[in-house]
Amino acid sequence: MDKISVIVPCFNEEEVLPLFYKEVVHTLEKIQNIDYEILFINDGSQDHSEDILKLLAHKNKHCFYYSFSRNFGKEAAMYAGLENASGDYVVIMDADLQHPPYLLESMYQALKYEDYDCCAGKRIDRIGENKLRNFLSHSFYKVIQYLTKMDMDDGAGDFRMMTRQMVDAILELKEYNRYMKGMFSFVGFNTKWLEFHNVERPAGKTKWSFKSLFSYAFKGIFSFSSTPITMAGVIGGILILIACFISLYSIFIHHLSYLTSLVLFLSGIQLVFVAILGQYCSSCYFESKQRPIYIIKNTNKKV
Ligand code: UDP
Ligand code: MG
């Protein structure tokens, strides 16, 4: 009998967890001839999420929770889930029901009978979401695709079912700065896409502020591409040429204010490039420390 592991990162999700549990268990129990486990990764929630998870785990022997010692972020939660999942097929899905559970059965069929290694949900619209966030997100995916030359589509999130082989491949990537969307693309494998319409959260609020989304976006770029450094070199070279021409020109007409703004502009550019270099250095710095990606404080799973 095949076993499906469902990984659910949760951060302050007390309002939606009971709903999520009901829908997902109902869906999983309808799939014929499978065993399942649901791993709730409680990412340092400050509300009553842990109490609810304890109750669910007590009620259903297929449910397990892992509570982190603090908020380590969704990437760390997904990694903890992948490390602890024992299923032949592993699903990652959000706790807020924005990843429709009804797709689970089709995902399983695709992996089991159609020979795919991964079956992922792709959101085809963003109706009901903040317009500015949609625009920024769309632009970010254009930039990251260009910079990394990897297939990272807007709308393609972390919601997917993977074979054990693909999960093991992802677990081989042990980096501290984790960017799962890049990793799915990096490990390759055959992916089938299932489209779905955006579903609004039934309760609770998004856990992402603009600030955290920006830092997530930069993490994605810096952990999967060195193109910004190459671009820095090229732009630096072009600016040196321009500066040479302007210097020669200003020697003849002594236009000093023009020179001042040029110097300011060039030092600004230099600072930006120093910052880009700094980003890569700081990534190396954190990788070299080899700190744990997450720390579990509490779990009902016996090791
Ligand atoms: N999440 C998490 N840790 C965090 C932030 C979010 O585990 O630091 C979880 C959250 O509980 C949810 C999923 O990640 O299950 C997606 O978060 P959210 O719904 O806030 O993101 P959005 O759908 O707005 O992109
Ligand atoms: Mg959500």
From TrEMBL:
Family annotation (CDD domains): DPM1_like_bac
Indicate the secretion signal residues: none
A single Gene Ontology CC annotation of this entry is: plasma membrane
Q: Does the keyword Transmembrane apply?
A: yes
Q: Which GO terms describe its molecular function?
A: transferase activity
Residue ranges of every copy of the Glycosyltransferase 2-like domain listed in the record: 5-170
Cite the entry's keywords alphabetically.
Answer: Membrane, Transferase, Transmembrane, Transmembrane helix
Query: Which stretches are transmembrane?
Result: 229-252, 258-281
What is the recorded name of this protein? Glycosyltransferase
Species for this entry: Faecalibacillus intestinalis
The organism's taxonomic lineage, starting at the top: Bacteria, Bacillati, Bacillota, Erysipelotrichia, Erysipelotrichales
